[in-house]
Write a structure and sequence with these properties.
This protein has 421 residues and is an alpha+beta fold. The protein contains 13 helices and 19 strands.
Length: 421
Amino acid sequence: MGVDAAVRLADLTFAALREASLDPPGVSRASYGPGERAAHAIVAAAAEEIGLEVEADPIGTLSMTLAGADRSLPPVVIGSHLDAVPHGGNYDGAAGVVMGLALAARLKREGRILPRDLVVLGLRAEEMCWFPMLHLGSRAAFGLLPADAPDTLRRTDSGRTLAEHMAEEGLDPDFIRQGRASLDPHSIHAFIEPHIEQGPVLVEAGRPAAVVTGIRGSLRHRACKATGAWGHAGAVPRQGRQDAVLAVASLAGALEEFWRVAESGGRDLVLTMGEFRTDPALHGPTRIPGEVTFSLDIRSEDPAVLRAAEALLRDQAETIRAERGVAIDYGPALPVPPASMDERLRAALLRGAEAAGVPVLEMASGAGHDALTFAGLGVPTAMLFIRNEHGSHNPEEAMAMADFGAALDVLAASIETIAAR
């Protein structure tokens, strides 16, 4: 199976995934639900057709192995997740698993035997929209979930527990309750997660692929509140107002200036203020708004930038209270540390791109991925982005198979270096 045949195999697999999980206008593959189950079955069948060794752990993590020269060595692992958001696109997550299969197929066809096993991994439950737990499937496979997670986590669409959904899928929630693990970070030589890019950078740059420098950490506040005083719009002069909307607008301006200065200094940062609203039972065109709720999402590869942002939020709260008489409560913080990708693996992918004649970018990942779990446990980790139009988590995902093939060429040209002793 040459490169064209490998890409054709991938194309057929994507078509089967789409057909099995079609939920117009997109696809739905609920974590521990029928769509995810069907995706795992399709991928497992493709792996068996290639001639890979296929097995699943008690929580449904799928391992598909191409034997290497020395099977006692820790394997190279390539993969991603197979669940998808409701009415989403067909490629988010799945592209990483299918690329692992395509690589294994090409290596097998060409008679290339790596010095160690190559394991293609199909993970469960990465999309947090189904269960409120970050990277549930990969964390469960490493034995990182709380023992009570099967009984306390409830799926957002059904209200039923993780344990109930797992049992319905023929899987074993006791695996989590007992703190067991099927993956050992000390027994993995390297983890590579190919993934569609979820923004417009590669489209705008005209490049088919990118080597990821790191995954941005985040500082999230989901339940922020600014509390001032309600008043009559025509009766209270500017100096006497405690306008919550203007207070949050002032905060937004300070955050945007912080972003501008960081960006001009070459620092990595993206910042979003969302869910901005007043109480519809109280607001009106003739009332000064006394309360505003909003959310904050601040992301950077640089821990120092995240710390500076946290300090800015504190300073702004004090300044706004003193100048406007409005109290800002950011609520609980949800911090996620950034993860740098392994320098050796990045260098191998860049050399592979050069050898394959594929022009690539180097860029940060703004979204979290299962790679964050692996890197956080000390596994040498890298990500390879594939160009994709129209963003992700929507039915308009549009990864061209030519771009998939170019990214596959990069991986195929670098895999011996990655797998070297």
